[in-house]
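Q: What residues go here?
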């Protein structure tokens, strides 16, 4: 009779352990999220798919979104049309956008996706994980950073952002002097 109870306790223990791990991971993500609010953006240079280089310093004076993504990431693929809409809506007001494909993403997949979807913003590859490292060891995709006109990271989204909230933030920052 005691064996079924042990199995139940064992299964329940595993569920509790998994729930605890999820809370710890979420807490770590929220801590990391809140700690980026006043941090300066790293001094990095992106290499676009066509080989052209763009430094983040060159984009000062504009609000910049840097989106780490992968073609194998279903959330990334799901949010990409809304990222395109966001860029198209705010680009004329001073928004710049760099989509950074992760190092594990096959370059031909990234090029194909960018071309077939006619992505209107800058698309770069992080072939050596230097961009991931510079932005605090990005592990999860999508991860999006919003950088103000002075080069400060003002928001980091892990996962797809709530787009109405993101648009409010962009409108506020784009209107700032």
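A:
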């Amino acid at each position: 009779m005691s064996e079924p109870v042990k199995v139940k306790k064992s299964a329940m223990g595993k569920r509790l352990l998994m729930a605890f791990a999820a809370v710890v991971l979420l807490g770590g993500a929220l801590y990391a999220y809140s700690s980026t609010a006043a941090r300066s953006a790293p001094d990095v240079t992106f290499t676009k798919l066509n080989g052209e280089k763009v430094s983040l310093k060159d984009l000062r004076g504009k609000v910049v979104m840097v989106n780490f993504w992968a073609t194998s990431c279903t959330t990334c693929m799901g949010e990409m049309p809304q990222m395109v809409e966001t860029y198209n809506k705010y680009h004329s007001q001073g928004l710049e956008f760099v989509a950074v494909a992760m190092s594990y993403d096959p370059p031909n997949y990234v090029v194909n996706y960018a071309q077939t979807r006619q992505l209107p913003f800058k698309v770069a590859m992080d072939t050596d994980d230097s961009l991931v490292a510079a932005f605090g060891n990005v592990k999860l995709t999508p991860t999006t950073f919003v950088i103000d006109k002075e080069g400060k990271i003002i928001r980091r989204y892990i996962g797809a952002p709530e787009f109405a909230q993101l648009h409010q933030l962009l409108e506020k920052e784009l209107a700032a002097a």
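A: Context that may help when evaluating the design: Confidence is low (pLDDT under 50) at residues 1-9, 12-37. The radius of gyration is 19 Å.
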